[in-house]
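look at this:
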Amino acid sequence: MTDTPSPSSSGTRVSTKAAEAKAQRAARQAAALRANLRRRKQQARTRQEQEADEQEPLTATTTETGENPTCP
């Protein structure tokens, strides 16, 4: 085998070194996109939890005097 450049899909010739660099760049981009997706999903989960906490009804366990409420 020789180290001759191989043609790319666009018809231009790309050296082996350039092809490796392109593959590494694509791998880094894929990893960054996965990390970004994980971060966005975590943010969405946190927002949902906060909204759920805000919507929970408050139950009165004690009155203003500190006593437990009783049924009439």
